[in-house]
Design goal:
The protein is mostly beta strands. It has 3 helices and 32 strands. The protein is globular.
């Protein structure tokens, strides 16, 4: 059958626009398309969509087949690993045919039973009704487990609106705040801190403080006028301090406030210095600070809460040229140094000798495959002897393990089920190295069917030439780059 002839594609008209900027005149004949409220823009986009549908109409059947095939490899009705926070176990579940996750909790048990009935905190499917787009952003729950602060986006432009919900009654309080980023409750269960986005610069530039149910009377606490910096607020894992971080791509600084004194003033830890990044957490009156002041791969230092400045920093883990200290997960009796060495993540467990900063490397969590990715999972409890981490590889689906620091044993809590007949035992992975022209050893991760090809040997791997089309599958252990989110521990749903 012949297809009917296509109409000509829509053509956006030119409107010559000149914008002076820093002594240079920028010319853009299509700047008018930025105006989302302009009916002509809407009409043009609808015409583009209609033309695309007409062009792709002959492939409609194939498109549906591909979609159904991909869907067949996804377990639609599923539940996440429950995690404990206070007296509650939190988890999300999905149901076949529903687009969004349902966020739930049970009291006193990791599974919903007759004795511990499920409480739905947020049902994304109900919240999304009447909206073409929906997403949940930041979330935090008060220490008593009653009040939920959460943000939603119904536009797709990452512009989130703040809401407060009473989890006892299920009622959402009146009052909203637009363009909210991070949210965190103080220890009094009624004072909420949140950051707000600058409408023009699209960055979080203000920190506000409000009492529950009185968002219209919020108080501006801090504003960062440097357009390079974004604000983020959270809380230390032990719950004792609120932390405000202002960070650019290469520079950061942090302030803190006792969580039990939410009306007090924030204290600066160390003033910003160009190209100096640091993040903080707290234990027993000491700040544990990950800093790149001695090199791009970061080191770990401590300082007293009363005197947090750099002149009082004491080194715990030194900077190393060949090991990147990517993160530190701090607990009451141990911490996990999340490092990257030779392109691979390493999770190394340090145990404290007592209440002070003295600690010694105790163990490294072992992984079963040569090429993999691993990182901390949700760990809300400060005084614990276990550590949860996520693991996956080119062969192993996404998995969650719990590591017992006393026995050194990792227990699998959940592995993503892949419907459709996937059998991980049919595949193998290797990690080999190729030699670059300058002699550098480049790690390469390989995966293959065991019955379809022989595993390549390291000696047979060719040298990588300049501008080669071969792209090594690895992330090098280097510092710098984008600043990670503030090292704080809000209660994530």
């Amino acid at each position: 059958m012949t297809q009917p002839p296509l109409h000509d594609p829509p053509i956006a008209r030119n409107i010559h626009t000149e914008t002076p900027l820093h002594g240079v005149v920028l010319t853009d004949d299509y700047a008018w398309l930025r105006d989302k409220e302009n009916p002509e823009v809407t009409a043009y986009l609808e015409a583009e969509n209609a033309y695309a549908e007409a062009v792709m109409a002959p492939l409609a059947g194939l498109r549906d087949d591909l979609y159904q095939e991909m869907l067949s490899h996804i377990k639609q009705t599923d539940v996440s690993v429950p995690f404990r926070d206070g007296a509650w176990w939190y988890y999300t579940r999905t149901e076949e045919g529903l687009q969004y996750a349902i966020h739930c909790r049970t009291h006193g048990s990791p599974s919903a039973t007759e004795d511990t009935p499920e409480q739905v905190i947020l049902d994304g499917n109900k919240l999304a009704e009447g909206h073409a787009f929906f997403a949940i952003g930041a979330t935090d729950i008060t220490d008593d487990g009653r009040w939920l602060a959460y943000t939603t986006d119904t536009t797709g432009f990452r512009q989130y609106t703040l809401h407060i919900k009473d989890l006892t009654t299920g009622e959402t309080l009146e009052g909203e705040v637009e363009r909210v980023g991070s949210v965190v409750w103080a220890a009094d269960n009624r004072t909420l801190f949140y950051t707000v986005e600058d409408e023009e610069q699209k960055r979080q530039h203000q920190l506000w403080r409000a009492s529950r149910g009185q968002l219209n009377e919020a108080e501006l606490v801090y504003q960062d006028d440097d357009e390079r910096f974004n604000l983020g607020a959270g809380r230390t894992r032990d719950g004792k301090y609120l932390v405000l971080e202002s960070a650019s791509h290469i520079t950061s600084e942090s302030w803190f406030l006792a969580a039990e004194n939410p009306n007090g003033a924030f204290t600066l830890i160390s003033p910003r210095e160009d190209k100096h990044e640091y993040s903080v957490d707290h234990r027993n009156g000491l700040w544990f600070i990950r800093t790149n002041d001695r090199g791009r791969n970061f080191r770990l230092v401590t300082s007293p809460v009363a005197t947090p400045g750099r002149e009082h920093w004491t080194e715990l883990i030194p900077h190393r040229d060949d090991v990147m200290l990517e993160d530190v997960d701090l607990f009451a009796s141990f911490f996990v140094a999340c490092e990257r060495e030779d392109g691979l993540p390493r999770l190394r467990v340090w145990r404290f000798d007592g209440d002070g900063p003295q600690a010694a490397l105790n163990a490294e969590i072992a992984f079963p495959e040569p090429a993999y990715d691993a990182h901390p999972h949700i760990n809300c409890i400060f005084d614990t002897g276990t550590f949860r981490y996520a693991y996956q590889s080119l062969v192993t689906p996404s998995s969650v393990f719990e590591y017992d620091t006393a026995t050194g044993v990792s227990t699998l809590l959940k592995q993503v089920e892949i419907p459709g007949g996937f059998d991980r035992t049919l595949y193998a992975s290797e990690r080999v190295h190729a030699t670059a022209p300058d002699g550098m050893q480049i790690p390469v991760s390989l995966v293959y069917r065991k019955d379809k090809r022989e595993p390549p040997s390291e000696q047979a791997l060719p040298t990588v030439a300049p501008n080669s089309d071969v792209a090594p599958v690895s992330r090098p252990a280097v510092g710098g780059g984008a600043t990670p989110p503030p090292k704080t521990h809000n209660r994530y749903l």
